[in-house]
């Protein structure tokens, strides 16, 4: 295995960081351990024959456990060359590929289908909205503010729903009486129940997370499990989970496609560096804690990214 040592410039924050740190993904991992899943930076050292693929100073993106670090060692085979060290490329590593692969493999999108995206202005939601619109679907997106509604409209979202100003269930029942064909769901709890109720006949609900339950002791989000089978049976509807690690065979092709879309101007990669947070931008590893709190307070628009000052990496 050929290894590269990367100097991290930007690292991504994900809702699942809490699941990992709580031991829900791998209970065998004991503290202390490194957290974080993704980063963008430069190659600072090469191992074995990795010099055949990379050069020192090259811009790279990588998805690897323990990415909340100033330096990260990653197998050369999993590193992805990018044109520049920009946080926009980081948005694609987990969030973009999750939306792309899940909708492609499970969504069966086609023109005219009605697609509901929950947490639509978040890190993965922004991509689900855009990809569904690329497939000529009618897209509904839930969010928590008028500012996020405006952002969703800028992405082409046909019907943003600010759940702090409108009741999601009432809107869906009144404006979409025949239901929605596909739901891209990442919230869980009451939102999951509303989404199930809104499914059309033969509708599909894709669960990519349940952030409302990640901070509970068990990590479980309450759903109406007693009534769920009957509701699905009545509509010939389905609920299917999606976990990116189970689709890694599709990962590189998805990244290549998304990179081309971004470079050609077909894809918006919204980054939130915390500029509007109470304590300012997320700078340095010590700000990861603030960034996670910011996400769980539903403050972010787009992907939350932490910047690591370049001066930190001037020398090994």
Summarize this, please?
The protein is of the alpha/beta class. It has helices at residues 16-21, 87-107, 125-134, 146-154, 168-175, 189-198, 228-235, 251-263, 288-296, and strands at residues 3-12, 38-46, 59-63, 71-75, 80-81, 114-117, 138-143, 159-162, 180-185, 199-207, 238-241, 271-272, 303-307.
Written overview of the protein:
The protein is α/β, with parallel strands linked by helices and 316 residues long. The protein has two domains: 3-85 and 270-307, Medium-chain alcohol dehydrogenases, catalytic domain (Quinone Oxidoreductase, Chain A, domain 1); 93-209 and 235-245, Rossmann fold. The chain has helices at residues 16-21, 87-107, 125-134, 146-154, 168-175, 189-198, 228-235, 251-263, 288-296; strands at residues 3-12, 38-46, 59-63, 71-75, 80-81, 114-117, 138-143, 159-162, 180-185, 199-207, 238-241, 271-272, 303-307. The strands form two sheets. Strands 1, 2, 3, 4, 5, 12 and 13 form a seven-stranded mixed beta sheet that branches. Strands 8-7-6-9-10-11 form a six-stranded parallel beta sheet, with helices on both faces. Strand 6 (114-117), helix 3 (125-134) and strand 7 (138-143) form a beta-alpha-beta unit. The radius of gyration is 20 Å and the shape is globular. It starts with a strand and ends in a 9-residue tail after the last strand.
